[in-house]
Every structure is written in structure tokens, then in C-alpha cells.
TrEMBL record:
HAMAP family for this protein: DHQ_synthase
Enzyme nomenclature, EC number: 4.2.3.4
GO MF, one example: 3-dehydroquinate synthase activity
Location(s), subcellular: Cytoplasm
Protein name listed in UniProt: 3-dehydroquinate synthase
Chain positions recorded as NAD(+) binding sites: G112, V113, V114, G115, D116, T136, T137, K149, K158
Function: Catalyzes the conversion of 3-deoxy-D-arabino-heptulosonate 7-phosphate (DAHP) to dehydroquinate (DHQ).
Known catalytic reactions: 7-phospho-2-dehydro-3-deoxy-D-arabino-heptonate = 3-dehydroquinate + phosphate
Recorded superkingdom: Bacteria
UniProtKB keywords: Amino-acid biosynthesis, Aromatic amino acid biosynthesis, Cobalt, Cytoplasm, Lyase, Metal-binding, NAD, Nucleotide-binding, Zinc
PANTHER family, per the entry: 3-DEHYDROQUINATE SYNTHASE (PTHR43622), 3-DEHYDROQUINATE SYNTHASE, CHLOROPLASTIC (PTHR43622:SF7)
Annotated organism of origin: Parvibacter caecicola
């Protein structure tokens, strides 16, 4: 079957393709040649992690060989902990030592961690070189490789330092998903569920119907879930590239509590998707009070997340600690935390919530 092509067309940016298909990594160089021909790269640097590199680095480098320029690689430790100040410093130093120049290209080969880290390295080194995303997790195919958010975590909170840099090209070669474990599969499903619920009845009820097949990794359903998610995200980002117009925040549904859980539990303790799923359960309940979220939606979302392998987390923390972590969320304004709440499927609101209401709902939710 031919690869699916989604064109990301953001005002003020060069258009780029997201290609989704089986076994397309080997053709990466051929597909990139026309994209990079305006300024042929003097060198390509593939950045990967210690789990992905042994599996797919060789195929990736072979795929890039047709471009005829030197291809170097560096490998960072696998896992969320690598999205940090220390590792980005090492990456910048390696880029300089390898002689990367403004006309070089960074290829991010890995999941969302490598995508965010390598994207940030590319966006900042010499004030910006071109970046190509080669996502290898379900999450990175459906979400993080598209839209240009890059960055690292601080001890104080998730993604607190970063930039926006749109990739030049995205290659989602779905065969690599075969080596992904159950935890990471469910993690990607969480972002698909987030997108479906925020997008429309059409996407949400398609997902409800196909959740068992997605959980079983049925290839046609997997490809359609990726394509639907990318089309949705590309449409949102096209309206609000830098999250400054009150539109892109919708992609943050579930993330206000989700990011607080990741920070407080320690990066890597829970997958990003598992924490976001918990955040979606909480936000829907908060929505019942503040946005008229119907009980049927709360229950339908719970059932969907259960089916996708995203069970309720065995985690709790004092409500005050969670609130303090949430206060560093990038959606906060004038010290108040703002939540994306689902008034209904396909109808979200960005609501500023006072501290007492948040504390009350956290205590209720976590049974304090
Ligand atoms: N920039 C964005 O728009 C955006 C969107 C969503 C999430 N994110 C970020 O993405 C990160 C989460 O990404 P993730 O869920 O992909 O995690 P990840 O990158 O840590 O990958 C998960 C695990 O799977 C391994 N792995 C990756 N590909 C594999 C493969 N094909 N086979 C076997 N193992 C493989 C990795 O080595 C890692 O151990 C978080 O830091 C989150 O904040 C960013
Ligand atoms: O692309 C976006 O915009 C998103 O919010 C997608 C999220 O899934 C992703 O986790 C993102 O990194 C969160 O962004 P942040 O600005 O809250 O750090
Ligand atoms: Zn996310």
C-alpha cells in the first residue's frame, strides 16, 4: 500500500510532508532530496537513543546515504530523564565537535524524548539548523513529531525550556512500531484519545468503535489513527503556531495534571501518555462542575481509556503539592491555573480555575 501523505501548511512556514507507511525509512534520503535541495546539507547528524539506535540507526543511515553527504550519529540515554540540561549540553558540544554548520541537518530518530531534545538542539545550535523528525513510537507519530514544539524539562517542571521550530519533513515508518512494548503503545493511545475527544464526534466515535483493534495493533486501524491524529494536529497548529491565539491550548487537554504527575512522581516513573490519561479523567470531572461536561462523556472517556490499556494510576500526592506543580504550567495566567475542559466531544473551553476549586476537586479525585 502506498504511503499516506499529510501536508502541514502553516502560515509563514515552509510546507512540510508527514509520510506514514510501512517500511519507508529506507527511502528517507530519496524523499528528503527535493526537500533539502534549496540548500544541500554539508553534514547530517542523526540523534537517537540507546534503545532505538541498535534497532534502526543502520537502516536510517543507509536510507540517508543517497544524499551523498557525511552522516554522523550520536546516541543519548533512553527515557524521559534525557530531556535535561546536562544532556542537551552534551549534544551541543558533540554538534560543535563534529563540525556541524548552518547548512547541516539534524535527524531525530526516536520517540518524543529524542524528538523534543534533538529538535531543541537543532533549533538552538548556531541559532537554528534544519530538523527532520523520524518518530519511532506511536506517541511521536501521532503527536510530538508534528507542530514544532521542542524542549527539555527542568527539575521544576516539564518542558519549561524550549522553542518552536517546524520540522522540514516527518517520516513515520510504521514497521518500527513492532518493537514497542505495551506501556509505550498505551502511551501513544492516550494522545490519540485526547485528539479524538477534542476534535469531533467523527474522530471520537470512530476511535470508540476501533479501540479494541487499535489496542491489538491492527495495521489499517493503526495507520488511520495516526493519519487522523496528524490531520487534526496540523489543522490546529496552522491556526495557532505559537500557542498565542487561544487555539493550540486544546492540545494540552489532560496535560495540566499530567505534567504535574510526571514532575512530582519523577521523570520516567510514568509514561507521558499514562499521566495525560489521568489528567483527562480529572479534567472531565472538573468539567462537570465548571463546563457542563455530561456524565455520559466522563463515562465514555473512562471506558475508552480502560480499553486502550490506560488504567487509573496508583499514585497520589498532597493536593497542595499538585497545585504548586500546576502553577508552573505554561497555560497559567496572572498566577491562575487554566484547564482545557471538554464541554462536549469536539467542544472544549479554556477555563481559569481558582485555587480552592482545584484543591477541592483534587481531594475528591484522589480520595484525600
Ligand atoms: N513536542 C510535542 O508536541 C510533544 C507532544 C507529545 C509528547 N511530547 C513529549 O514526548 C515525550 C514522550 O515521548 P514517547 O512517549 O515517545 O517517549 P520516549 O521517547 O521516551 O520513548 C519511549 C520508550 O520507547 C523506546 N522506543 C522508542 N521507539 C522504539 C521502538 N520503535 N521500539 C522499541 N522501543 C522504542 C524509547 O527508547 C523509550 O525507552 C515526553 O517528553 C513528552 O513531553 C512532546
Ligand atoms: O503540540 C502541542 O501544542 C501540545 O500541547 C502537544 C502535547 O501533547 C505535548 O505533550 C506538548 O509537549 C505539551 O506542551 P507544553 O507546552 O504544555 O509543554
Ligand atoms: Zn502530550
Amino acid at each position: 500500500m502506498a504511503a499516506t501523505r499529510v501536508v502541514v501548511d502553516i502560515p509563514g512556514e515552509r510546507q512540510y510532508d508527514v509520510r506514514i507507511g510501512e517500511d519507508i525509512l529506507k527511502d528517507l534520503g530519496a524523499k528528503l532530496a527535493p526537500v533539502l535541495e534549496v540548500q544541500p546539507p554539508s553534514r547530517i547528524l542523526v540523534i537517537s537513543d540507546s534503545n532505538v539506535a541498535p534497532l534502526y540507526l543502520e537502516t536510517c543511515k543507509q536510507g540517508l546515504a543517497t544524499l551523498g553527504c557525511p552522516v554522523s550519529d550520536i546516541t543519548v540515554p533512553a527515557g524521559e530523564e534525557a530531556k535535561c540540561v546536562e544532556v542537551i549540553g552534551e549534544v551541543w558540544s558533540a554538534m560543535a565537535a563534529l563540525g556541524l554548520a548552518r547548512d547541516s541537518v539534524v535527524v531525530a530518530l526516536g520517540g518524543g524524548v529524542v524528538g523534543d531534545l534533538a529538535g531543541f538542539a537543532g533549533a538552538t545550535y548556531m541559532r537554528g539548523v534544519r530538523v527532520v523528525q523520524v518518530p519511532t513510537t506511536l506517541l511521536s507519530m501521532v503527536d510530538s513529531s508534528v507542530g514544532g514544539k521542542t524542549g527539555i524539562n527542568l527539575d521544576a517542571g516539564k518542558n519549561l525550556v524550549g522553542t518552536f521550530l517546524q520540522p522540514s519533513y516527518v517520516c513515520a515508518s510504521t514497521d518500527v512500531l513492532a518493537t514497542l512494548d505495551e506501556r509505550e503503545w498505551a502511551c501513544g493511545c492516550a494522545e490519540i484519545a485526547k485528539s479524538a475527544l477534542i476534535d469531533s464526534d467523527d474522530f471520537f466515535f470512530w476511535l470508540v468503535e476501533n479501540a479494541p483493534l487499535l489496542a491489538e495493533r491492527q495495521p489499517d486501524v493503526v495507520r488511520e489513527a495516526i493519519a487522523r491524529s496528524v490531520v487534526f494536529k496540523a489543522g490546529v497548529v496552522a491556526q495557532d503556531k505559537t500557542e498565542s491565539r487561544g487555539v493550540r491550548e486544546c492540545l494540552n487537554y489532560g496535560h495540566t495534571l499530567g505534567h504535574a504527575i510526571e514532575t512530582l512522581a519523577g521523570y520516567g516513573t510514568y509514561s507521558h501518555g499514562a499521566a495525560v490519561a489521568e489528567g483527562m479523567r480529572f479534567a472531565a470531572r472538573l468539567g462537570q462542575t465548571l463546563a457542563g461536561t455530561p456524565l455520559e462523556l466522563v463515562e465514555a472517556q473512562d471506558a475508552l481509556l480502560d480499553q486502550l490499556g490506560l488504567s487509573v494510576l496508583d499514585w497520589k500526592a498532597p493536593a497542595e503539592d499538585i497545585l504548586n506543580a500546576m502553577k508552573r504550567d505554561k497555560k497559567a495566567r496572572q498566577g491562575a491555573v487554566r484547564f482545557v475542559l471538554p464541554a462536549d466531544v469536539g467542544a472544549w473551553e479554556l477555563v481559569s480555575v481558582d485555587d480552592d476549586t482545584i484543591l477541592e476537586h483534587l481531594r475528591l479525585y484522589f480520595g484525600e
